[in-house]
Amino acid sequence: MIENHLTLDRLRQSPLPVPEEGSKEQRGTVLVVGGSAEVPGAPLLAGTAALRSGAGRLRIATVGSVAAALAVAVPEARVIGLAETGEGAIDPADAQARLPAVAGRCDALLVGPGLSADAVAAALSRMLLAAHPKAALVLDAGVIAGLGAQAEGVRSCGGRAVITPHTGEMARLLDIDRGAVEADPLAAALRAAGLLGCVVIMKGAKSWIVDPRGTAWLYEGGGVGLATSGSGDVLAGVVAGLLARGAEPATAAAWGVYLHGQAGRRLAERVGPVGFLAREIADEIPAILREA
Questions:
Q1: 91: closest CA among 121, 56, 134, 135?
Q2: What residues have CB less than 8 Å from 71, skipping those under 6 apart?
Q3: What is the DSSP string of 260-284?
Q4: What is the count of structural domains for the chain?
Q5: Which residue ranges have biased composition labelled Basic and acidic residues (predicted)?
Q6: What is the pLDDT of residue 50?
Q7: Has residue 20 been placed in a domain?
Q8: Is position 114 annotated in a ligand binding site?
Q9: Confidence band of 133 (pLDDT split at 50, 70, 90)
């Protein structure tokens, strides 16, 4: 295991793909799968962040009852309205029928924002892992807890997957006490990376990025203000956008954490250490990318 402190100088040693003149398709297409009747905004935050990170096209698949409103809120996206369960969640059967064809035309999939950690989330992640294993994947929020039972499916991605757990999600994934994760988040991240064969972003006041080989990077954090509702959806969207542009998973994860953190620092200076909103984070990303 090699530990590195994540700095801009280190990141410049693994530069992001440079956008070339040409069509939006050349910068990649992101599909965000998530949201529910009660949490319709999570895929909005994630999808906007993917575009702010330079992805060329955005698709959002969510519950039909909020699809029209989401399409108006994010006019840059194609929004796919899916049938929903009685509880207002995505109906996995309709997703199974309609999403594989959409996913097959995308470069990066983000699954999880706005999903609860339940059977629906597990069914969606299982279906998409089976339907399109060649795409780069970000597995976030509600799907993370059930990945232990889907380890073979994640490993079949060949290292092209990134997971973004916070402490509680990591504890459920590994079936260990939350206190054990809090006591040694790096050990938990290394264990998850080994189990799933993927890149792990272990979120916290200090974030760890670990790849399947056991290489680890430590980011000291963007400030307490980033501990706010929706912030994790933005981070997942940033990583998905960078993957769609063609960045390798570990590179996308490291740059994503840095960009998210630096956006928090800028907002803390301009707005205040706490009180800025997750929806404001993505707006800072283009300028940070330009200066990097």
A1: 121
A2: 77, 79
A3: HHHHHHHHHHHT-SS---HHHHGGG
A4: 1
A5: 1-12
A6: 98
A7: no
A8: yes
A9: low
